[in-house]
Design a protein that fits this description.
4 copies of one chain form a homotetramer. Chain A is an all-alpha fold. The first copy, chain A, contains 11 helices and no strands. Chains in contact: A-B, A-D, B-C, C-D.
Chain lengths: ~210, ~210, ~210, ~210
């Protein structure tokens, strides 16, 4: 199998799944029904959907950041193996699942049992961070191209350092979700912005 | 990271998101329920869905025009940076959101409070035009390839001139939405056709 | 803009739209509700969904055949222009719309007013065949590569001959839909198979 | 048609369909309604969705394994013909259909007539394995590149040996579905893991 073909196709397939998972999030924002609008007015009904907007924005930003980092990892490797395909598949499984906890959170954030929705929501992101960590460990140990090994030793070490923070931080968000639903979701949004900025702070990454 | 790989993957991912957002629009056109058809007949029930068709067509045409212009900008750059990925992400966030205001407009265009739906609809397009403007400013200032800088100075200046009109025109549509819902949506459809024709009028763009 | 980039990106975007439109068809096959199953049994409820299966299969086969022919046309051209992008956009608009008449047909094929659903269903395919015809006329007149012009004159003429049959045949199916809903849908399925076989009969096409 | 272009575009299109079918599975996991949560609590309502999770996981894993094998087959061929496009289309038809039996199984696994849902679910996977078998037979007989024929005779024979097991094993799962719904679904999950591991055991496949 030509090497170039390998990562190209994994990228294309993964990009498709990331893109569809991000786009499907929007169909979980439900148009308010006429009966509700008759009572509350349309403006108020739309404002009352803020948990849906928050969940949409947080999930979108998180998947986008993961996609950017996936892009970065795939750019460092020029071959893959069966194990990589299945670690990648595990990551995609969790990413694909995101619209469900997102919809659940939007529906139950303000409910007395909202904590369970926040547990599942932050837990899904924890699972994503663990799968990504495993993917990177496998890729960095076995799949770096000779060029990447020589030229990008520093960069690879830097990625490893950064990713070390992912799982503990999302474990923190999962912990917070037992105390406050809204704060744990807000923390996930902050984490997405944090990883975006950390990425920006390391120009070597994409240049 | 090989330069060619960079823009190829951003394009593929963006194309996926544009394509899915356009295709998801159709699932917001709801098949009329049997109870309504029993009263009004199927033909009349289908005609009464005209706000859905108008919203579908306008959103589809707008996303298509943005995709064509995105295609044009990406063709001029041969590298990208983290900031570009996140400006692009912001643009995709608004594009992904389009099915929600589209469904809302289809449901509430003829409602006494339809103005709010039209505000959100035209406001979303205004946000898209602003994000696209920011993407182009960043790309034209920092990411043009040496070739593009030398050969396409005139083309780049022309794009800059054209895009200057996007935000004010969509601000206009947003303003009109406070006076007349239907006119503001019609104006968005006209704007999509206008940008399509302006693009056609500048053959240098794609040849 | 590098020539090779142009058609690659149009193909990728179009492939995405074709693929999503085909895949979205399945979400219009609704799982029978428990109340219905309690009365009729699950087996009978599933058999009663045959209009959904027929509509799904016919729409899937039609979009697949169009995709194969789109693949064939794009392979003959190596550049595109703004007009091509918008003809292609018009084709994608109709393809994207297909899930709506498909769902409508599945719901109303056996209804006394099913004829209207069949009119819209066959009419959408007629519109697709006209848009494809326009796309091919434009592409064959203006966008064939020098190689294709020299080497593939015969092939291009053959495509032109074949496509001449598309619009009249779908006009026929549209006409039949006024007499018999089921026959007009069956005819669309036969047409998809017919175009598939005609394609197979001309080995020059893809070899 | 340039040879390289052919398989690239079939791959891109197929990847799109595989990716969308996998991602659409999640929208069949329905957020529990407030009335149910008021009676059972949110935690219990979520646990009661286990048939949805099982069906999601099994369908996701199965489509992922098929995608990995599809990737493997496409990597061995460098040309295609009309017959290949339509065998591939048949495979995609069955893959695209998967969300419907998945949703049906999730809804009716615990129902007295759940056997019918399990029949359709395992029967769909049987159809997929048969279509994949036909695709591989056609590809291996007619479309292997000269390189692949010379260098990969052993690999091709190995694929043939492996795939011989697919249809009988899924026929077995289909048979089991008449005796026990849950066991037949569990068997499909085990089969997906089995094919994943068998693939891993043959490192020649992707290296």
């Amino acid at each position: 199998m030509p090497e170039s073909n390998q990562t190209v196709r994994v990228e294309a397939f993964s990009d498709g799944v990331f893109g569809i998972a991000m786009t499907l999030l929007v169909i979980e924002i439900k148009v308010p029904p006429h009966e509700l609008v008759a009572v509350q007015g349309l403006g108020h009904s739309l404002l009352a959907l803020w948990p849906s907007y928050l969940a949409f924005l947080t999930s979108f930003a998180t998947i986008l950041v993961i996609w950017v980092h996936h892009h970065w990892v795939l750019a460092m490797i020029t071959k893959n193996d069966h194990a990589f395909l299945y670690w990648n598949g595990l990551l995609l499984l969790f990413v694909t699942f995101v619209p469900f906890p997102t919809a659940l959170l939007a529906e139950y954030l303000l409910h007395p049992e909202g904590r369970i929705a926040a547990n599942l929501y932050t837990g899904t992101f924890l699972a994503i961070s663990l799968a990504f960590d495993a993917l990177w460990r496998h890729a960095s140990a076995r799949l770096l191209s000779a060029d990447a090994k020589r030229d990008k030793r520093g960069e690879a070490a830097q990625i490893t350092r950064q990713y070390r923070f992912g799982p503990p931080l999302y474990l923190g968000a999962f912990g917070v979700s037992f105390a406050s639903e809204a704060w744990s979701v807000g923390l996930c949004l902050v984490l997405a912005l944090f990883f975006a900025l950390r990425g920006s702070a390391s120009p070597a990454a994409v240049e």
